[in-house]
Input
Amino acid sequence: MNGWLGSILHVDLTDGTHSVEHPAAATYQAWIGGKGLAGHYLYPHATRSWDAPGMPLIFMTGPLVGTSAPTSGRMCIMSRSPLTGTIGDASVGGSLGIELKQAGFDGIVISGSSQRPCGIEITPGSVLIREASALSGMGTGELHIRLKDKGAVATAGPAAESGVLFANIVVDGAHCAGRNGLGLLFSAKNLKYLTIKGSGRVPVHDPDGLRQAREDIFRLIAASPVLLGELGIAQFGTGALYDLMNNRRMMPTANFRQTVFAPAPSMNAAAYKRRYMPKRSGCRGCHILCKKVARDGTLIPEFETMSHFSALLLNEDIDVVTKANSICNNLGMDTISAAATLACYAEMEGERLSGERILSLLDAIGHGHGIGRELGQGSFRYAAAKGEPGVSISVKRQELPAYDPRGAYGMALGYATSTRGGCHLRAYPISHEILRKPVATDRFSFAGKARIIKIAEDCNAVVDSLTACKFVFFGASLEEYAKAFTAVTGVETTTQELMRAGERIYYNERIMNALNGFTDADDDLPPRFFEDEGSSGNDMRIAPLDRKEFLRTRARYYRVRGLDQKGMPVSEKAAQLGLQWTA
Output
């Protein structure tokens, strides 16, 4: 094989054993790698409880990882989500994926549960399970410092040990596998860390062909103002979106009761640049370097964190946002869900949280103290337990990120149909509704959005399987990456063939969710978006979503996706994609 190494490591923490599987080439070609291959391994266990010993925690790279293909340093982590009960996955950067490939493996499937806290250490030819009781209670930052000499480091922090349902896995102390609570699963296996140090090389079929594909991708990235422009992501990080969302009157404010935040001009990415004078950083294998790090090593928040810890909580202190980000990273918990849960709590209590109160509540959540234990279950469970479920702004129990769907109707549909709960990255319609890439669409219309969302979900499933960074696709396309895939693997592949694989990967996720009881009732939005107007003004009305039109568009999406009227898989469609489904 080329690109793929043909080896999957299986580790059983219950009996402390490991083995190596060598999948058939056809398996790799059907699922690509990353998210696709992880879903293939998750499927036989899909209906198990997330905390059952047999539920695997899967780390999977793609064929481009470890090569010179642009942004090829990412990997997928997948299991069943403790927060949502859906399939749970995250694309994460850092060096873990590259080190895993250089250690000789395409992926790791971890099952079982250790009797005592442990760590897994992987090097070429060696897989060791170490006793790690002494590391219990440590934050992810301290763990990374202690373990970084062992190579790439993945850890879970105190939040996972405290049972927080939105606990993260943190890679290299800075890159979060977030949103779905995979850190809690990491900790439930009594796993405190995973380290990998490799030394090998990933074989490439056609180095000259890869070089040409790489040049084409770089050329398109260079021409993208969103990526490398004066006000783009390379200069300001994802925070470059902050002013844009506010100006489009779709910045979630006061727990989505408003959509404009008046202090935004003093809380934007330029303000962080003045305040912290950050340097550029990023994932291995990427030249965009969208992460920003202050001179003292403090991580500058990403856009969603920047927005939710300011506008969503009506907080006007930029230092509080940065401290909140640091607390969440060190405790190992998702910033979007943490901030949204606090916003839900603040609305229910009729309280405007001070900066000090925000930080103290985060600490209480991460350590499971007092009210923090209840808030650590996420906004949906907290609000439902108090008899006010509508105050939780979530889909499939996962809190929504920093794009109000009343200002972008494709995003409204994308939130609802996402297989991992409220998520902007499954289809990312912001690219065409706001950034006008690859073409502009009317953000206040559902017209055409059903097919657009379906195609984007398939495309992003491919991106997360190769694996690459979604930001690159503001400039490049799957056409260039199909050439890179062919050059690396030697498997002649077209864009259409990759998209067919993406459709298979996404449909497989719909099947796994259906097996766990998810239906059209779960592909929906909170009532607030259909009942309340956003912050209209400047000759722009942010009207409530038309529920009838939303439901008609969702029905069209089901037809395009090959689902029945209840959003359930269809056996004929499954068979066309090489999958199995029995209603």
